Amino acid sequence: AADKIRLIPQDFFAELCEQIIQHLNHKIPGINTAELCQRIQTSGVDINNDDLAKIANTLSFLFSTAARNNVSTEELITTLGSGVSPLPKHAVQVIRHVWNEQGKAIAVSEDAGNMATVGQFVDMKWKLGVAMSSDTCRSLKYPYVTVTLTVADPSGQITDKSFEMTIPQFKNFFRQFKEMASVLETV
């Protein structure tokens, strides 16, 4: 990971660290590494989304472990500098600054540790479409609904999940949402 971190400019690395801290403090649902990766690539750095996601996971683990163990800034920096593959100087400076400013605020509670690791719903988009024809059928006129769910997985990575439903499937989906809403109103 240290080799890949060397590629990331300091300002982007700082933004990534800030987003991770915000995610750990439950201020944002996750880290959009795809969007950040695209911006880094636009600046001329050759890095892919998988590598950036691994770096984000590593930093998230680092910050959450440091918070759980109540590690001071100096202890954290000493540990980072003494590894087999030490982090680049700019990365250590960013981590020092972010940890000094916001690290102690990371909420470490027993409830957070006991929560199921399922992910968090961020957004939902849908659109109605009609399949007019295909290679095997000249006249379909088949309506469908495409749903895209934006979800932050437990590590904070934001991904989109898309699926299509027939109109009867969508009506069932909608009915279930109405049932959930009515149950939530009674709580």
UniProtKB/TrEMBL annotation:
What is the superkingdom listed in this entry's lineage? Eukaryota
- COMM domain: residues covered: 120-187
Output one GO MF annotation: NF-kappaB binding
Tell me which Pfam families the record gives.
Answer: COMM_domain, COMM_HN
Q: Which family does it belong to?
A: Belongs to the COMM domain-containing protein 6 family.
Function according to Swiss-Prot or TrEMBL:
Scaffold protein in the commander complex that is essential for endosomal recycling of transmembrane cargos; the commander complex is composed of the CCC subcomplex and the retriever subcomplex. May modulate activity of cullin-RING E3 ubiquitin ligase (CRL) complexes. Down-regulates activation of NF-kappa-B. Inhibits TNF-induced NFKB1 activation.
Write down what this protein is called: COMM domain-containing protein 6
